[in-house]
User: Fold Dienelactone hydrolase family protein from Sphingomonas tagetis.
Amino acid sequence: MAIDRQTIVYDGPGGPFEGVAVTDSDLDGPRPGVMIVPNVLGAKEEDSVVGERLAALGYAAFVADVYGQGKRTTRESPNPAVYMAELNADRALLRDRLFASVAAMKALPDVDGAKTAAIGYCFGGKSVIDLARAGGEVLGVVAFHGIFDAPDYDYPTPITAKLLICHGWDDPLAPPEAVTGLAAELTRAGADWQLHAHGNAGHAFTDETMAAGVRPGFAYDANAARRSWKAMRDFLAELFG
Amino acid sequence: MAIDRQTIVYDGPGGPFEGVAVTDSDLDGPRPGVMIVPNVLGAKEEDSVVGERLAALGYAAFVADVYGQGKRTTRESPNPAVYMAELNADRALLRDRLFASVAAMKALPDVDGAKTAAIGYCFGGKSVIDLARAGGEVLGVVAFHGIFDAPDYDYPTPITAKLLICHGWDDPLAPPEAVTGLAAELTRAGADWQLHAHGNAGHAFTDETMAAGVRPGFAYDANAARRSWKAMRDFLAELFG
Assistant:
């Protein structure tokens, strides 16, 4: 196994964008592609590490950039959410950047364009649910501690991408009424959806850097992280056959 | 592989009871035990078939009887729910019969008493949640389209058995408010719990004999059946290490 990273600069509305392709260069030929949509901070080392975990499973991973080249923040930035806020205020622009990112993934030489999926964390979880809503051409999406509010545009139904929503039940950004609202929305939209609620887990449960007690309802949770990753693996295996 | 069935008669309050042990007699030595609590109709062929699937995975399966020897119904019975109704009216008696059933499973020669779990369908799903609530000595329980109302007795906390609740979101017997109620209850009780909501699935989603359209909200659902079985396998693998 030889896991390689390659910076990929690609176009789209408000671009250029800078993603990272992560693949096992010991494998031959096209393989299923999995796009990773980062959290509020944008593409960072942790996302490439997720890409490496996916590449080790035999997938071609692609860390997407929906903010634009060089637009990144950290938890210590004056406003860590500055770029996210722009897209939360323009969900159609987020959609179009997601579409551009999927196209960039499908253009990678080792990606089988007929077998792709997207996963995302926090804002990236919201993004991949939007990707499914908007008719993005992926077989399925997995949201980890995503946000559930519907976009302000109409979208085509039925939703064709399958959805797996991995949710910490105690997430203050997605309380029970948001869960029941999303469930009703996805059912109305004819989606094939599953929601895994993890008891005692809050927002950011996959994020090992998120210590408990710093921000109420935000914390890494080893059980939810491990179990949701396994569920994702099962889901991807089903998608790609 | 040589999957065998053996009728097991055992004692308990209101007994005798008649269960079925299902095991691979080609395997040597004790192995993890998985108890199956049947649906409203009581132990029947379908439960032993589930036992065979579990035995093929290397577990020692045990179909429990919480009604009493000879007390069984069919969908065509004048009152299919007659025995279930008795136990819904006496949840403490249900608890005690579940405890007797766990003891019977642990007494089986091929069961490793330190590694046991229980699964259940419909009323059996409710039963295994009660088993966890009441402090039953199993490592974990899996409810398939269970019913979520809490028993009328106080139970010790924290709940120590882990719970996986596999739920059809459209189940009319467990609407969204029952889901949020169970989540709150299990969180208060300190349980390690997960709830997998399956979109578009209703009650009895594992039951291949349940044709769609006969009873609103009740139907077999191949996706939910397959995915929840896989989730159960992952859960048992985690429990038994």
